[in-house]
Amino acid sequence: MAVVVAVVVAAVVVVAAVVAAVVVVVVVVAAVVAAVVVAAVVVVVVVVVVAAVVVVAAVVVVVVVVVVVVVVVVVVVVVVVVVVVVVVVVVHHCDRPNRSNQLLMLNKSRINCILTKFSFCILLVVFNQMKFK
Q1: What 3-state class would DSSP assign to 123?
Q2: What are the extents of the domains in the chain?
Q3: Which spans are transmembrane here (predicted)?
């Protein structure tokens, strides 16, 4: 009878050891699966963050390019308008003393008048630009 009890106890110990080994294997597998899931989530988050940064950078570049183009266009338009206005005013002023048909031709005094006034206007614009810097 003692042998039977010893065999049963030995069998229970062996079964318990096998069950414990199975539990350890299941826990290890679960830990590995959890680690893989966490790694996959981290990879997805990193990819999403990198994609968002790339999109934001692209939007910033587009906005900067558009602003630069608009500023350049506005500056060119302002410069053209100022030059046209200055030329019209200078030519009109140089024609003012005598409205005869002779002054419609480019004689020497008219050319000197236009160049003098235009040079003065250019110097004034350059001086104003330097004053703002």
Answers
A1: helix
A2: 31-132
A3: 6-29, 36-60, 66-91, 111-130
